[in-house]
Amino acid sequence: MKRYILTGTPGSGKTSLLHALKRQGYSVVEEAATDIITLEHGRGNLEPWRRANFIDMITSLQKMRQIEASMFPDESQIYDRSPICTLALSRYLGYPPSDCLLEELERIERENIYQRQVFFLEHLGFCQPTEARKITFEESLLFEKIHAETYASLGYNLIKVAPEAISQRVHRIINWMNNG
């Protein structure tokens, strides 16, 4: 099975692109961080990223989703972010990587979980705040840089996906997966 990562700065269109790929019949795995933030907001914690276990909560959900998705008979899967993104988030927030995150990074490397080619969506020139996304455009550019550096430092190759219409981005990604 081929597992592709779709990543990029917050607000780069990952979720919209992921949903478009799903409509095309591709197996997709949703992002974990947004779901953790939404869950914590529901519990009254408006800044869950300040909690000591925030990174571990994301990592655990990512691992659970990846293991569940491995049971599907799909030839390929597309993941909205990965534990490598969680490492980038940890670095962005100034947290040392937790044992939970380090163990998961070791597991995905040892088991060769993800393709080494990663679809990296370039920013759209703005970042729209949401309930889960409280980051400015300027902050998102720093986060984008940390993401790119983190993936490169772990030996992943970024396939940059330029900002264009979703249909064009979908076509480029499908083309690359079929011919790459």
Describe the structure.
- There is one protein chain.
- Helices cover 50% and strands 14% of the residues.
- The protein is of the alpha/beta class and 180 residues long.
- The chain has one domain: P-loop containing nucleotide triphosphate hydrolases (Rossmann fold), CATH 3.40.50.
- Strand 4, helix 6 and strand 5 form a beta-alpha-beta unit.
- The protein is globular.
- This is NadR/Ttd14 AAA domain-containing protein.
- It comes from Ktedonospora formicarum.
- Residues 3-169 form the NadR/Ttd14 AAA domain.
Strand content: 5-15%
Instruction: Figure out the total of helices.
Output: 7
Give the low-confidence spans: none
Number of strands: 5
Overall tally of structural domains:
1
Global morphology: globular
Provide the CATH superfamily.
P-loop containing nucleotide triphosphate hydrolases
Reported CATH architecture: 3-Layer(aba) Sandwich
SSE order? EHEHHEHHEHEH
Mean pLDDT: 91
